[in-house]
Amino acid sequence: MSIRVSLLCTVLLSLTGMGCSDTNHRGTNSTTGATSTDGNDSSGEDVIEAKDLSFTTGGTSGEEDSSNSDSSTDSNGTDSSDTTGSSGDDIETPQDTTEPDTVAPKPDTIKPEPDAGPNPDGTSAVKAKAIYDVKVTSDVKYGTGVINTWSGKDDTIIDLLLDIYEPVGAKGTKKPTLMIIHGGGFVGGQKDQKQLVMFGEFFAARGFVCFSVDYRVAKDEGLLPGNWPFEAAAIAPEMKVTQFKALYPAGRDVKAAVRWVRENSFKYGLDTDAIAAMGGSAGAFLALMLGTTEEDDYKSEVDFQSDPFLLESYLNNSSKVAAVIDLWGGTALLDAVKFIDGKERFDKTDAPVAIIHGKNDESVPFTEAEEIKAAYEKTGVAFSFHPLDAGHGAWSSKIDGKNLAQVSFEFIAKHLNLIVE
Asked: N or C: which end of the chain has fewer CB within 10 A?
């Protein structure tokens, strides 16, 4: 029997202070063993010293790397060549096996020194090198999702969680933010994927606050709007029907996560005008969606009676981001909402994007990257284009001799107009 009426009552009681949910997450502090029972707090905190940060770029979850070459183009047409790694995991069959790491040269680090402080307007400068120790807070609740809605099961709910990477000792009330979104073909994946941890540590050690987000995938059977198009073969032929159905709750969740971040900007000292998003594979589909769709997309299609937890997701806040790192992603989330209303999502208001994609990708075709590039050329919004001689999941790639974290950092700093010291 559906529980949507009772869910609505629960949310309304919570919002009026007359009641509260009993679905709080419980976890253990990874350092002290202390426990937390507040669903909005962490289940664990850890501090990584800047001098101990080492970054690996080898593939996991079935990915295999090999050295090839790539070329790069930014929106003014310049090219470059270097070496890259390739891998060939299948978006439809994510693996849990772990391959040996390929360790990239360790980025330069220097002994932490006192921060010179923020600029007069409170904006924090980011650092060119790893200055800060990194505090990691795991499993912070940012929302609630309805699940088990596709196959006749009783509806139920889950906590939606994220991990936070903070620069220890960084001053300023306007730190830039990076939203990190995992891949997994919309059927799996998790926020603590090794390569994403590396990105979180890399950016936080240089002054960003990073939020790595979990979201509902196909097995969760998240709630769908009544007008959701099921013509997956026509819209996204590389996807199975279950993957295509999972696009909506995933998009709804990551937008809710961005709104949650803006709501908590004072707590974490964030510049809400300097939020970027990155992801690999499915995560890149979602990051591109954040940078290009309209505010009501993946929000207004389901009403409060069907999904009362929308009321908890700070609907008055924006879910827009100001820059996107697209690692072998595609346009399916944009195509789906366009199929519903016929409106093109690419326009002059989109966030600048760095498009990084293997030419030999058999999971998300390279033509997806070319389509994104063509759309940005048409709108005139800034982009950079980096075709790799690689397959899917080429985390070990180098562009102009730089690993993907460094390339991403430079692109984001440029397009967020950050001061780099």
From this structure: N
With left for phi above 0 and alpha for psi between -120 and 50, is residue 241 left, alpha or beta?
alpha
Rounded to 5 degrees, φ, ψ at 158 are -135, 155
Residue 389, SS3? coil
Q: Could you give the angle at the alpha carbon of 193 between the alpha carbons of 137 and 271, nearest 5°?
A: 50
Q: What is the pLDDT of residues 156-209, one digit of tens each?
A: 999 999 999 999 999 888 999 999 999 999 999 999 999 999 999 999 999 999
Distance CA 122, CA 117 (A): 9
Using alpha carbons, select from 335, 354, 268 the residue that is nearest to residue 297: 335
Nearest to 195 by CA among 270, 107, 103, 77: 103
Which DSSP letter does residue 254 get? H
Q: Is 17 exposed, middle or buried (0-12, 13-18, 19+ CB in 10 A)?
A: exposed
Collect all residues with Cβ–Cβ distance below 8 Å to 111 and sequence separation of at least 6: 51
Contact 210, 164 (CB under 8 A): yes
CA distance linking residue 274 with residue 123, whole number of Å: 10
For 8-18, the pLDDT digits (tens) are 444 444 444 43
Taking residues 230-251, what's their average pLDDT? 88
Q: What are 398's strand-pairing partners?
A: 403
3-class SS of residue 28:
strand
SS3 18: coil
Question: Residue 53: CB partners within 8 Å, gap ≥ 6?
Answer: 107, 109, 130, 134, 201, 202, 205
Nearest to 344 by CA among 356, 353, 358, 334: 334
* CB 384 within 8 Å of CB 72: yes
The pair of three-digit structure tokens given for residue 374, joined into one six-digit string: 């063509």
> In terms of Cα–Cα distance, which of 408, 361, 403, 329 is closest to 82?
403
Q: How many other C-beta atoms lie within 10 A of the C-beta of residue 6? A: 12
Residue 56 has φ and ψ, to the nearest 5°, of -105, 145
Q: State the Cα–Cα distance between residues 147 and 218, nearest whole angstrom.
A: 10
pTM of the model: 0.78
How far from the centroid of its chain's Cα atoms is residue 316's Cα?
21
Q: Which amino acid is at 83?
A: T
- Closest to 193 (Cα-Cα) out of 174, 212, 210, 171: 212
